[in-house]
């Protein structure tokens, strides 16, 4: 119980974010209408993905320093779970884009960078699959992982801001410029982000433990 | 621990704002909400997520059990 308190916290915050996210008042803005509520559900997917990738990088660095197999396994499962959240982010974003921008995939810099960064992490999985020798695989993929993290940050947060992007938080969209100021939305948004990050870490942790059992029973 | 969690949640819920009367011509689903039907969807989603979280928790429990059996064997 003592060690599992954060799982309960995650569950409660998630349920709270669904109830409050659907029922609380939101700013009335043209184009967006009720879709502004996607902020509570779509954006946390990306936050969770980034945090999972960050944890993965930390364990990759730890692996290079220690050579401990557990660190390598943790790094892998964090990325595996992160990729799932990345795809959820892409899919939810496409539905939203279809109704607010008129197309699921307008060739927007933010979208394309998100797709590239997802492919980059898929390449990490492929790279691991291609190497048979365990220590070599762990070392090479750890280095790859450490390099791809900053590239992902640049792709998602820097490049889209240097050009004009449709995506909220980057430029041209009139709808979202004022959501930053709405403290009512923060009340749901931050708990939602925290809840999804904790759920993501929880799932990754389960996958890691399963893999440990799997490896030990070989 | 649970007490603290409970108070934390109460604190979160206490900031629910009373919806201010905003008159605007931007369409938003007031009709749905006033007729109460949105609560049905909220209820459905809450049930789904409680179910999924419970499922996640039970998987966690099972993995812990296997871990215990394994460690006692070794």
Helix fraction bin of chain A: over 70%
Question: What's the domain count of chain A?
Answer: 1
What Rg of chain A do the Cα atoms give?
Answer: 19 Å
- As a percent range, the share of helical residues of chain B equals over 70%
Query: Strand pairing plus helix content of chain A: what structural class?
Result: mainly alpha
Distance between the termini of chain A: 31 Å
Number of discrete helical segments of chain A = 6
Strand content of chain A: under 5%
**Largest interface, with Cβ-Cβ < 8 Å?**
A-B, 38 and 34 residues
- Which term fits the overall shape of chain A? globular
Count of DSSP E strands of chain A?
A: 0
Overview features:
heterodimer, A: 218 residues, mainly alpha, 6 helices, 73% helix, globular, B: 74 residues, 3 helices
Q: How does this structure look, described?
A:
The complex is a heterodimer of chains A (218) and B (74). Helices cover 73% and strands 0% of the residues of chain A. Chain A is mostly helical and 218 residues long. The two termini of chain A are 31 Å apart. Chain A is built from six helices and no strands. In chain A, α2 runs antiparallel to α3 (69-100) and α3 (69-100) packs antiparallel against α4 (109-130). Chain A is globular, with a radius of gyration of 19 Å. Chain A has one domain (40-212). Chain B has three helices and no strands. Chain B has helices at 2-13, 30-34, 38-73. Chain B is elongated, with a radius of gyration of 21 Å. The chains are: A mainly alpha (218), B mainly alpha (74).
Summarize the entry for a quick read.
The complex is a heterodimer of chains A (218) and B (74). Chain A is built from 6 helices and no strands. With 218 residues, chain A is an all-alpha fold.
